[in-house]
Amino acid sequence: MLFLLLTGVEVLIALFVHDDFVRPYVGDALVVIVIYCFVRIFFPDGIRLLPLYIFLFSVAVELMQLFGVMQILSGGNRFLTVLLGSAFSIWDIVCYAAGCVVLVGIERWGRRVRNTQD
Fewer CB under 10 Å: which end of the chain, C or N? Predict the structure, then answer.
């Protein structure tokens, strides 16, 4: 459910928010959380270093933008261009890192809550 909700928020940001903060920064931090929620659908008990893996994946996507791979993959399709991104930015990587730090905090909090319930 959280995956669907956050995906909806991302879509709304992409379609309707055209500012200098929410779309470029909050949207990028939120996308790693969306990916995390998607992976947790298939691995509900989690993967030990999942936030790190998501960060590395996000950086790889950003580097592919730097080298023009995303333009080739999107084939000029506007939806895919928005989904995959089109321009490299070091600030995107900073936002991905911030989102992953939030994920680490959520995971630690969740472990603490589960341990106190046992």
Answer: C
